[in-house]
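Hello,

I think I submitted the coenzyme A job twice by accident. Can you confirm which output corresponds to this input? Input:
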Amino acid sequence: MSDLQYIRVEWDQELAIVVIDRAEKLNALNAEVVGEIGDVFRDLKEDDNVLGVILTGAGDKAFVAGADIGELAQLTPATAVKFSREGHRILGEIERFPKPVLAAVGGYALGGGCELALACHLRVASENARFGFPEVGLGIMPGYGGTVRIARVVGFGVAVEMVLTGAMVDAERAERIGLVSAVYPREALLDQAKVFLRGITKNGPIGVRMALESLYMAQNSTLADAASFESVLFGLLASTADMKEGLTAFLEKRKAAFKGE
Ligand code: COA
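Support: Only one job matched these inputs. Its output is below.
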């Protein structure tokens, strides 16, 4: 993970904290930032020491204030398609990341920033967080999955409102509509995000991984196919030491010590 210009990776035991650090431009996503996000997640995927990832932005003002508008202004029809497809590919990798990814949104999550947060499995926010899709005000539309993922999280009605008006949703409303799971004071965001994510990483890692697979399948296939896939994964878990440990620990009234095996 050397040679990164815009991304810092910090570690806190089993958690990797991926910080988008282009604070002077409110962490706007230029091509390099997007490419580096892809590189970092590809590396973390192979790292068995990582049980969960927090994605956040540097500075107090923004998670990510969108795609870089200077770069957008240069797009031609052909490069715009490429731009969108590349964004979809990398955000898709985050969505399919085998361990939980939590977006810690401290400030603006606009346009591509909102789309990036939506590609994460979970979101928490600071009190000053603002979510929205300002694209229509720029004469464009979301191109990194915004129109695809927002409805799955907040429902179609609010999705249409957000995408067509471009109006920002504050943290309090974001929590109410299920866009974020929790809201914290700005200074407590990262620590609270770690506590939140550790509520997941303390669980059996293989069970968590397979549950994520199953949740993804449920979003992208028929009920019958997803139910069948769930049964197969459930059966597979019966072959793990973690399942034995989890169930035995309960029966023996002790805390489970999962090994991810
Ligand atoms: N792309 C490129 N640069 C951006 C940017 C973006 N999406 N968002 C912010 N910046 C830059 C600003 O141009 C400014 O750079 P400068 O200091 O060199 O002039 C810097 O980040 C700080 O932003 P500024 O606008 O001065 O901060 P603010 O607090 O007054 O306003 C926002 C914050 C988020 C409301 C405002 O920056 C904004 O509307 N940004 C664009 C949001 C957007 O439309 N995103 C979707 C793109 S598809």
